[in-house]
Amino acid sequence: MAEALGIDLGTVQGRESGRRPLANMKAGAFLDLKRRLLTLGADRTPLGLLDAAMDADRIIGAALDPSVRLELHPLAGWVHTRDTAHMIAWAVDGAPPPALRRPSPSRRGPVATAPLMGTQERRAFFANLRNAVEAAAGAGDGRALLHRQALYLTSYDRSPEANSWTAHALHARRGLATAQGGSPRWAEARSTATALARRGDPVPLRDFIDRSIADDDAAEAANLNYWAYWMGVLREPQADDAFMSDRDLTGWDPATLLRGLAQGFHESPGYVDLYAHSLWALLTAHPWLQHASPALARALANRVARILDDGLISSRSRRELSVVHYVLRDHQH
């Protein structure tokens, strides 16, 4: 490997062990490394996640350093994506991102099964995140992005001592559900509801869909715009949540978002109601999507049919998924 990359053996060993973090490389050298690895036949999936992994490391590093000022925190000036959140979760609880949940080639020597933080680091990570949430709340709307994103990440802490704080902090934000679609407070209410759903309480998310998305054109657009960014369909980095207010749904490809929602629909059953409504809204906004990929339409129709049979969804989700199923099945005939 060292010979193929034109570097010394110690550099390769340092990068593999973490003694020489990739984040410390010069930008040009990092780009060269990624392209050289691709040329050498590296797996494209983990290679494509390197940027997200480095972003996750920046967030973890900042959360482990209580001296980082609020305005310089990486969660304060950049909207993080699903890939970055999955990388952070991997370090927190050892669960690999969905894209990496597959057998990997064996390697020689002792190799960690996950980039898992130690117990003390993990406690410090969440304790400092909770402090950041409280400090951002006291700083007003100017730190709304930091508050929203840090609060969402605290919901990954399932330790007994954190459960009461997290539950109280999340439920205290449920009153934001009436905020205007696409506003920072609306975005925070959405994140809060999804965090509660991931922790096993679907009711706040169902209430949010009914009260703060459905029948509101601005909120429907904001929801789809956020999905597009979260899933990497809207590729431009965003410094705040203002991009959600684009009611013309520009900057992202609807067919790619449909593919992402269909995949997430399968991988994330805890968010089934939000996926159901978002699929319905996307197909309503772009009726031609049913013709874009016949194979995807068939697979999604079958998945929707199974969920309708299970019955563990809200009445709204049942109505909307029935429409989705009819539209997709109608295309097949």
Summarize it.
The chain has 333 residues and is mainly α. It contains 16 helices and no strands.
Topology:
Blueprint: H1 2-5, H2 9-17, H3 27-39, H4 44-48, H5 50-63, H6 82-93, H7 119-138, H8 144-154, H9 160-172, H10 184-198, H11 203-212, H12 217-230, H13 254-267, H14 272-285, H15 294-310, H16 315-332
Helix pairs in contact: 5-6, 7-8, 8-10, 10-11, 13-14, 14-16, 15-16
Provide structural commentary.
This protein is an all-alpha fold. It has 16 helices and no strands. The protein has helices at 2-5, 9-17, 27-39, 44-48, 50-63, 82-93, 119-138, 144-154, 160-172, 184-198, 203-212, 217-230, 254-267, 272-285, 294-310, 315-332. The chain is globular.
Hey, roughly how much beta strand do the residues contain? under 5%
Q: Mean pLDDT across all residues, rounded? A: 89
Q: Which secondary-structure class do the elements indicate?
A: mainly alpha
Head-to-tail CA distance between termini: 53 Å
Low-confidence segments, given as residue ranges, are none
How many strands, which pairing sense, and closed or not: the largest β-sheet?
Answer: none
Overall radius of gyration = 21 Å
Supply the number of helical segments. Answer: 16
Question: How many β-strand runs?
Answer: 0
* Percent helix range: 55-70%
Query: Tell me, what's the shape?
Result: globular
- Helix-strand topology string: HHHHHHHHHHHHHHHH
